[in-house]
Write a structure and sequence with these properties.
Strand order of the largest sheet: 4-3-5-2-1-6-8-9-7
Oligomer: single chain
Structural class: alpha/beta
Distance between the termini: 34 Å
Number of helices: 7
């Protein structure tokens, strides 16, 4: 039985988290994530999700391309992941709505905070696509912005490491923080989340929880406040 710690969450999933070996999306894993989101929502947690698009395209992959064009391609790629997630949630028996930062009818609804909050109150899983709609901003920053706008109680950051370390954990002897302030991350130059997202969180943001996504159970543990990871707070 799920025992949620939070009433309203925004979960950030990287594109790599759902990437497949033989295709851009691991649909089996996405289906398991979707079933977990439906379970969390059914437990009374208003659940929002934002996707990166590293499984398809990152703006910095553009090489000699115009950076604005390359970033726009990345934002469009997040919409592909969002639509796939909506389909998976609905096949798992839940309801979902995709909101995009630019008008993309008939593929998705145009985002406003009021519309998203209304969908959350109706028990729908809300999925944010298109980033901020502006180039040069990461999905971390888009996620922080949406978490603030919808009044999320927590910004959950599913990662490929256990949380926020004082240095690259691949270098060895890295210390995992149980808790750290947003401004401490900025001062130390830690890139566990984008520095712009950290600066925004320091002034306006809810607590963030950075945790390793090895299995969908890790999402449940994060929602319950029981998982291993790092809590990031205002300071």
């Amino acid at each position: 039985m799920l025992e949620p710690k939070y009433k309203r969450i925004l979960l950030k999933l990287s594109g790599e988290a759902i990437s497949g070996r033989d295709g851009i999306i691991d649909f089996d894993f996405l289906d398991r994530i979707a079933a977990t989101l439906v379970e969390i929502s059914a437990a009374g947690v208003e659940t929002a999700v934002i996707f990166g698009a590293g499984n398809i395209w990152r703006g910095r992959q553009g090489g000699e391309m115009n950076r604005v064009t390359a970033d726009r391609m990345g934002m469009l790629a997040t919409v592909i992941n969002s639509l796939a997630a909506k389909d998976a949630v609905e096949r798992a028996g839940g309801k979902a709505e995709v909101y995009t930062s630019t008008d993309m009818m008939p593929y998705a609804e145009y985002y406003t905070a009021d519309r998203a909050i209304e969908s959350l109150s109706e028990g729908k899983v809300v999925i944010f696509g298109g980033g901020t709609g502006c180039p040069y901003f990461s999905t971390d920053t888009a996620g922080m912005l949406r978490a603030i706008e919808i009044g999320a109680d927590a910004f959950l950051l599913a990662k490929n490491v256990d949380g926020i370390y004082d240095r690259d954990p691949k270098e060895g002897n890295a210390k995992l923080f149980d808790e750290i302030g947003y401004m401490d991350m900025v001062k130390l130059g830690l890139r566990g989340i984008d520095l712009t997202a950290s600066a925004m969180g320091a002034e306006f943001g809810p607590p963030a929880v950075a945790f390793r996504l090895a299995d969908v159970e890790d999402i449940k543990r994060a929602v319950e406040g029981k998982g291993r990871g790092t809590v990031i707070v205002r300071n």
